[in-house]
Amino acid sequence: MSKRFVFVAMLSLAFALATGGKAHAEGRDLESASPQEVVDGMANKLVRGVANVATGWIEFPKQIYLTCRNDGAAKCVTVGPLKGVGMTLVRTVAGVGEAATFFLAYPGFYDPYLDPGYAWQKE
């Protein structure tokens, strides 16, 4: 095993112990959730993480388009690409985080790290 994997695993375990394994969202916590809800939450978080790692690049043209639509042509050419690069990095890193910690009911009850949960969803 690599040192990085061991570090992430230990950090995740420490976080889980510090929070008592609880996740609160919509009045639910981990103790009151059915096993099927927990497994569904974990699976959704893992798939969302992998999808965001694979499709984080979609944020680049999306941010250029949104900047053009909302702020005009001048900002489209200057600010749009910068926002695109930034959001590509944010989306990809969030995907890595979700995939690495899919077994933790954080944040909330396996909620996405970013809103919207996927790059192709409407903001």
Question: What does the secondary structure layout of this molecule look like, with pairings?
Answer:
Blueprint: H1 3-18, H2 35-55, H3 59-71, H4 73-100
Description:
The protein has 123 residues and is mostly helical. Helix 2 crosses helix 4. It contains 4 helices and no strands. The protein has one domain.
Keywords for this structure?
mainly alpha, 123 residues, 4 helices, 63% helix
Helix share, percent: 55-70%
Strand content: under 5%
As residue ranges, the low-confidence spans are 16-26
Structure annotation, total helices? 4
Number of strands: 0
What oligomeric arrangement do these chains adopt? Answer: single chain
Short structural summary:
With 123 residues, the chain is mainly α.
